[in-house]
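Technical note accompanying the year-one report. For the benefit of new consortium partners, we illustrate the data format agreed upon in the data management plan: each record pairs a sequence with a structure-token string. No post-processing was applied to the example shown here.
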Amino acid sequence: MADQQISLPAKLLNGGVAGLIGVTCVFPIDLAKTRLQNQQNGQRLYSSMSDCLVKTIRSEGYFGMYRGAAVNLTLVTPEKAIKLAANDFFRHQLSKDGKKLTLLKEMLAGCGAGTCQVIVTTPMEMLKIQLQDAGRIAAQRKILAAQAQPPVEAPRPTATQLTRELLRSRGIAGLYKGLGATLLRDVPFSIVYFPLFANLNQLGQPASGEKSPFYVSFLAGCVAGSTAAVAVNPCDVVKTRLQSLQRGVNEDTYTGFLDCTRKIWRHEGPAAFLKGAYCRALVIAPLFGIAQVVYFLGIAESLLGLLPGPQA
């Protein structure tokens, strides 16, 4: 197992490369997911993912679909690297007896990975959600202005301005608003995802000890990712609502996880907890499929192998 420690920098790099590729491909769908989850019954602007994307392009232009992408592209490298490398580390620690990992141990490894990643995930999601949802709030206020109600300008801050304001007004805790909800989403996600992926990927191995073909890793990542994403979507809806600082007109405000859950159930019904579920599945499936292909093909190992070693 010594190779695990030797290749750790490469595994971190693999996670980062995979995250950058994946986010670039699926970010517009993630924006639609955030806006669909945040809209409440009072003022529904979007009827579906495609409706949201079409209206976003019309009102904000093509690059409006990528609002908040810079935050993700900056922080997704450490986030994905921590998640994948932590799962690898915990699996290694739990398999020191040389025996095949049991399902329980695979779930424990996933739990550890999900817990570690929230260090980066929470502030990343906090900033991303404000930038993604700003267009929805601005569009809602334009509609109200057209209906002869007093218009209120919605600010469009940058990620840097948001960070400075949160640190100034709330300290470091401001960037970690919704930490509990993030844990309740990401820990169960990893508990479902990593064991499911490992077992699906194993089905495609041609022989014991050999790597699965890349398409098997990709499909296993897609299936495991979409399954885990839908399973934890209720927690993702609550997390998105809690982390949104700006509210539309007549929209509920929340004091915590339980208060948010109660109000969504009471005012919008249980189906509201599945808002954006198919968007999230469409985001997570290719994101983790790409991640596992990059990770298991060892692209970073190949790149690092091309670098000259230290001179004698």
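Partners are asked to follow this layout when depositing records. Residues 103-146 form the longest helix (44 residues).
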